Amino acid sequence: MYQNILVVLDGESTEQKALSRAIHLAKVQGASLSLFLSIYDFAYEMTTMLSGEEREQMRHSLIEDRRQWVSDLLEDYDLTGITYDMHIVWHHRPFESIIHHAIEQKYDLIIKGTHQHKGLQSVIFTPTDWSLLRKAPCPVLLVKDHLWQDNGTILTAVHAASDSEVHQALNRKLITHSSFVAKNIKAKLHLVNFYPGTPTAIAVEIPDFNTAQYQQNVEAHHKQAMQELISDFEPVIERTHTRDGIPDDGIPAIAKELDAELVVLGTIGRTGISAALLGNTAEHVIEQLDCDLLAIKPDGFKSPLA
After folding, report:
1. In CATH, what class is 148-306?
2. CB under 8 Å to 187, separation ≥6 — which residues?
């Protein structure tokens, strides 16, 4: 499933979380890696008085300097048996260079590390991270500091009771991808589905309304939907969880409860005003997670940069 992986290197650190995770995946499934670094020096904008040839020499020198930096960096990593190549790209908008390269080369997966906030426990998500979640043409794995332990746990969030075929197709895609990863890293796969609680307005406006019975019926409906969803996947699924509440808060809570190594979510990739107003569950959840996030787009998604 992930045979051709794009690894986004961190040009500001010698610790390459994304590379470590990519090497792990490559070794267990025989994938090839493309190591990618987008660079730009704004001093280049101040060299307009130089000739075109001199400016090109400057740009070439900066690229080669970073290429050597990456080569030196790789000496600390065991790439034995792994096929890999290196791409140093000159571009002033990193997320665009990553996505354009991913579109051109048709990668199966993009892996990128996150940045820890200095002095705080929280993680800073850069504009590049958000743009990859929304616009990347393939699944994106954002890596935190949480290690992948043997016999660990993968948590996949689904919307089992949706009437939308788009959502149901995405559910099946999420389970397929997370099952693949779980098998390769020998992890246990858990699914979680959230359903809404009883609307307060109903209980207020209808005094005789049986809130408890309503809640039981909703829960039973979602549990039945979950069983129908997993009927083709049951042997690979360790456990399912059906809970009331909001996914944005509930997913991080159960991920912490299970000490999950990885959370798998679907993202519909909203952009522009709709993203600013509505956001995506993946974007709300990720800042609260202390483990990796694998974000997957629905079939038929086309990057706005394509």
Report:
1. alpha beta
2. 148, 151, 152, 153, 154, 181, 261, 262
